[in-house]
Structures are given as structure tokens and as C-alpha cells.
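quick one before i forget lol
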Amino acid sequence: MKSDGLSIVIVGASGNLARKKIFPALFALYSQGLLPENTNIFGFARREISEEEFHDQISQHITCRYKPDATDCANSIRKFLGLCRYVQGQY
């Protein structure tokens, strides 16, 4: 099956809703293979943080419900975070 690209933009990406609900839900879809291979996730918010800080904030709330093996889990999280970019700006 041919898969077109998918880009997801999350406005308010540094907020609690995004960190605690949206990114974990996207990771669950990713870990089950339900997102296309060429998916990009862009987090947009006013807060000035580095992409590394952004990834740290996301990873604190991600759990591997669908890949219980610790090695697979760590690799899945690392790959998922590679899809996520942070853009700082004003609304």
C-alpha cells in the first residue's frame, strides 16, 4: 500500500495537554504501526525551549504499553522523538 506523507502540527505543544495526552496518544499509534512511515510531527508553542528539552518533556510521559521489551521500548521512543520537531513562535 502506497503511503503519502503525514504532517501533524500541534499548537500549544509545550503545554500539559500536549505532553500528557496528545504525544502519548501519538506514540501509541506509532508503536502499533498505525502512522505512515514518513510522518512528521511539529510542535508549535510560544515558550522558548530547545528541541532537546522538548524531547525530554515528551519522553517523561510516554509509556510502552504495546512494546513491553525494554530494548524495543527505548528504540521506539528514540525513533518517535526523531519524528518530533519544535518550533517556537507567537500565535
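fyi The helical segments are 16-31, 51-59, 70-83.
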